Amino acid sequence: MKRKILFTRLLHSNLAVPVLILVICGLAYGLLAPSLGFYWDDLPYALVYNRFGPRGYIDFVASDRPFSAWIFIGVSWLFGEQPLGYHIMMIFIYWLAAVMLWWLVRLVWPLHPSEALWAAMLFAVYPGFLGHPQAIIYNHHFSSMALYLFSLAASVKAIKTPKTRFWWHFLGVMAMALSQFSIEYYIGWEVIRPIVVWLVLGDQDIDRNGRLRRSFFQLLPYWMATLGFLAWRLLIFQFPTYQPVSPLSFLDRRPSIVTQIFEAVFGAWGSAIPNLTRQDYSSSFWLVYLVLIVLAAAFVFFTLYVLTNEKGSSEKEASTHSAFGLPALVVSLAGIGFAGWPFWLVGLQLSIVSQFRSRFTLAFIPWAVLLLAVILHTLSQSRARWMRYFIMVLVSILVGGSIGWHFWNANYYRNQWVEIQRYFHQLVRRAPGLEAGTTLVVNDMRAIPIFEDDS
C-alpha cells in the first residue's frame, strides 16, 4: 500500500513529466547510441580536436560562427574522440530543450497541464529532423535551442515573481544573447516574446495602458540585445557563408515556402506511420522496430491515462485570461510564420527527407507541436467521454511511431558508420604506403552518402 502511495505521488510530482520525457528521449535516440559514430560535419570537428585539442575550435569556427566555440570546447573536453559521449550529451541537451518548452507552456498557461504535457512529448520525438545521430554538430544547435526556450520562460518568470525580477531578466537576456550569437537559427523566435509577455500581464489587474507600458519595459532589454546582435551580424560580420537572395528571387519561392511549412508542421508526422515492409533491413531488425513501436505506444498511453486521469478543478475553471485555445494558436502561428526566415532569406530549402536539409526544421519544432497541442485541446472540449481516450490513443500512436522512426533512422546511420570504417580499412590494407598530401580520385561514393561535403 505504501509503495502504491509513493508511486502515485511520484507520478503527480513536478519531476514526473521531466522524467517521462527523459525516458521517451532515451527510447527514441539512445537504444543504438553505443553503435553510432561520427557523420558529415562531425568528422572535421573531430579532426580539429585530434590535431589541436579543444582550443582549436576557436580558430576553426571564427570564419562562420565565431561565438559558437564554447559548446565544442566544453563537450570535446569531456568526451575527446569517443563518439558515445557526444551521443549521450545530445540526448541530454535535447531532453533539456523539451523540458524548457514544457516549463514555458506551464508558465504561460498554468491551468492547462495536459496541453503542456502533449507539447513536450511531441517535441521530444518530432520525426521531421533526421540529424540526431550527428552528435558533435547538433549538440551546438540543441544547446542554443534550449537556451532560447529558457530565455522565453525566464521573461515570463520575471513577470510572475517581482522580487526576483531583475535576476530572471538578467538570465533571460544572457541566455538569449548566447543563443543568438552562437547560431542564428532561432532569431525568428523573438516575435514570440511580446505575445507571451502580453498574455501573462493579462492575468494581472492592470488597465490596457498600464499593460502596454509594462510590456514595453519588460521587453526592452531583450530588444536591445537582439538589435545588438542584428547590427553585428548584418553590418559587421555580414554573410561569410550564405548570401542573401534578391527580393525577386525570394518572391518566386513563395509557393515552395508554403510547401516547406506544411511539411515541417504536418507532413513530418507521416514518418510516425510504421513501415510495414523491412526494405533494406533484416527481418529481425524490422520485428524489433515494430515491437518497439507497440511497447512505446502502450507505455505512453498508460502514462497519459495515469497523469490525466483526474483533471484538476482548476483546469476546468480556467479564467478568460488563462484560456489556452486562441492565445496558444496565435503563439504557434507566429512562431511557425517566422521560424524559417533565417534560411529562406539566404536561399536555403527545408526538406524532411534529407539528413542534411532537415536541420532547418529545428526552428519550427516548438511551435509545430504547440499547434498540435491546440488541435488536441480543441478536441478535448468535446463532451463525449470517448474523445478523451481518442486523444490519448492519438498521442500514443504519434509518440510510439516516432520513436520507432528514430530507431529506424539511427540504424541507417549505424550501417553508414560500418561502411565508412570498412572504407578506411580497405585503404590501410590496399594502399598502406599512401603519403601525406596524396590526392585520391574516387568514382563511386554512393555507398556512404552521409559522408559528403566537408567530411
**How would you sum up the global shape?**
globular
Main sheet: strands, sense, barrel: none
Number of strands: 0
Poorly predicted regions are 310-321
The gyration radius over C-alpha positions equals: 23 Å
Count of helical stretches: 19
Class computed from helices, strands and strand pairing: mainly alpha
Strand content: under 5%
Order of helices and strands: HHHHHHHHHHHHHHHHHHH
Mean pLDDT: 90
Helical fraction:
55-70%
Rounded to the nearest angstrom, the distance between the terminal CA atoms is: 58 Å
How is the topology of this model organized?
Layout: H1 2-11, H2 16-29, H3 42-52, H4 56-60, H5 69-79, H6 83-108, H7 113-125, H8 135-160, H9 165-182, H10 192-201, H11 208-237, H12 247-252, H13 254-265, H14 283-307, H15 313-316, H16 325-339, H17 341-344, H18 365-380, H19 385-430
Describe this structure in words.
The chain is mostly helical. It has 19 helices and no strands. The protein has helices spanning 2-11, 16-29, 42-52, 56-60, 69-79, 83-108, 113-125, 135-160, 165-182, 192-201, 208-237, 247-252, 254-265, 283-307, 313-316, 325-339, 341-344, 365-380, 385-430. Helix 10 (192-201) packs antiparallel against helix 11 (208-237). The longest helix is centred in the C-terminal third of the chain and has 46 residues, at 385-430. The protein is globular and about 80 Å long. The termini are far apart.
